[in-house]
């Protein structure tokens, strides 16, 4: 028989401890987020649909993005137990400098649309985390202002080559003068991808107050208040930005980009050169022979060619081809620190994350970006401990494999 008794007040006291009250509303929201998917859901509720879909969406039927995420989800780790994992070292050299974490924050366009602070919120978080941050040609803060927001940070600049090469040459010179140490040439945008969500939502640059956006805006007054009471939302490096993003790409960027341009840029830029948008072993070899210090395996987050190769599946063959001649970076579909660990085990030097921190920016500004980095960092550390590896540099292909899908 169970003997029952009435609890004394002293018995209840330990059970009735209230959680600490956070005065800041953003802190309260973000405290509930335990994953990037949680941040995504908060972002979805807090931003107009057109803004969320611009970040969340991809091209055509979005197969490229969905396949990328499926492949990361197919990773199977091989744990080794009975190892001392009380201390884990997450730092490694990326393009000649030590990074405190094995990932960087990827370049994203129109960043101030997701949160008023835009790049000025992201750069200090990257600096404090000890990781690189890449500013996009289509960013909404200038090269100089982004550097000034985190003067001790490590800055990379992502470049699209324009039809007018003098414009690109000016941007490169400004990046060098502002202390950027790495240039990232994007080569997978000869034309703009067909991003149907943007078309359906009528998203333009800058956003236009159609009846549809006005009605949606009534549900997100804080976003519109920020938009209308801060500096105009434009692409900081583009003189003209009217129309859709695809219109802008087709009008300004150069579909005649060739290997000669990679060679020209290598001769022009004195720092590290990364070529972004590599989707085959053959192209990885070509740009490395032209002088690239690293290749970024990427299908543009699924935002350009639908049914594109999955970057994660290219890591091992590209690493085998290039050896020590160039570093291999990877992006697209990374939503968990375990994805980063898998990329490193397969042979990548580092991963780049984009949507993951943009969800944080939409969910809570700079605090949200910081929360996204904290979540990814904790997931990387915990995954490494659970598979029995204490140093990022010790990750090997035997620690992870891609299981067949379907």
From TrEMBL:
Assigned keywords, A-Z: Flavoprotein, FMN, Oxidoreductase
Highest taxon in the source lineage: Bacteria
Residue intervals of the FMN hydroxy acid dehydrogenase domain: 28-405
InterPro entries documented for this protein: Aldolase_TIM, Alpha-hydoxy_acid_DH_FMN, FMN-dep_DH, FMN_HAD, FMN_hydac_DH_AS
Required co-factors: FMN
Residues engaged in binding FMN: 107-109, 136, 158, 186, 276, 298, 354-355
Gene3D superfamilies referenced in this protein's UniProt entry, alphabetically: Aldolase class I
List of catalytic residues: 300
Keyword Mitochondrion applies: no
GO MF term list: FMN binding; oxidoreductase activity, acting on CH-OH group of donors
PANTHER family referenced in this protein's UniProt entry, alphabetically: 2-HYDROXYACID OXIDASE 1 (PTHR10578:SF107), S -2-HYDROXY-ACID OXIDASE-RELATED (PTHR10578)
Name of this chain's protein: L-lactate dehydrogenase (Cytochrome)
């Amino acid at each position: 028989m169970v003997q029952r008794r009435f609890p004394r007040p002293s018995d209840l006291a330990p059970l009735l401890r209230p959680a600490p009250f956070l005065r800041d509303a953003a802190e309260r929201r973000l405290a509930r987020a335990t994953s990037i998917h949680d941040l995504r859901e908060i972002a979805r509720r807090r931003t107009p649909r057109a803004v969320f879909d611009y970040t969340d969406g991809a091209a055509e039927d979005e197969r490229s993005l969905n396949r990328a995420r499926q492949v990361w989800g197919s990773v199977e780790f091989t744990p080794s137990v009975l190892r001392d994992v009380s201390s884990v070292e997450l730092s490694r050299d990326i393009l000649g400098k030590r990074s405190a974490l094995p990932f960087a924050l990827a370049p994203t366009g129109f960043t101030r649309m997701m949160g008023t602070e835009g790049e000025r919120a992201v750069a200090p978080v990257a600096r404090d985390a000890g990781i690189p941050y890449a500013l996009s040609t289509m960013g909404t803060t200038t090269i100089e202002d982004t550097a000034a927001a985190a003067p001790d940070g490590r800055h990379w600049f992502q470049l699209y080559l324009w039809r007018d090469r003098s414009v690109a040459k000016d941007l490169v010179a400004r990046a060098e003068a502002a202390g950027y140490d790495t240039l990232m040439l994007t080569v997978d945008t000869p034309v703009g991808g067909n991003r149907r969500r943007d078309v359906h939502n009528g998203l333009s640059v800058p956003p236009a107050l159609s009846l549809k956006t006005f009605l949606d805006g009534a549900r997100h007054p804080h976003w519109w208040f920020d938009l209308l009471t801060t500096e105009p939302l434009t692409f900081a490096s583009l003189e003209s930005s009217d129309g859709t993003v695809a219109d802008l790409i087709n009008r300004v960027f150069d579909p005649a980009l060739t290997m000669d341009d990679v060679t020209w840029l290598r001769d022009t830029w004195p720092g590290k050169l990364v070529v972004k948008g590599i989707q085959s072993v053959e192209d990885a070899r070509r740009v490395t022979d032209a002088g690239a210090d690293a290749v970024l395996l990427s299908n543009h987050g699924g935002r350009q060619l639908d049914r594109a190769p999955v970057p994660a599946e290219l890591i091992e063959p590209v690493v085998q081809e290039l050896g020590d001649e160039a570093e291999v970076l990877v992006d697209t579909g990374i939503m968990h620190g375990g994805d980063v660990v898998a990329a490193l085990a397969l042979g990548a030097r580092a991963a780049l994350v984009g949507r993951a921190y943009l969800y944080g920016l939409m969910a809570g500004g700079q605090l949200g970006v910081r929360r996204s980095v904290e979540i990814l960092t904790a997931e990387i550390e915990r995954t490494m401990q659970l598979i029995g590896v204490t140093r990022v540099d010790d990750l090997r292909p035997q620690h992870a494999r891609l299981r067949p899908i379907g």
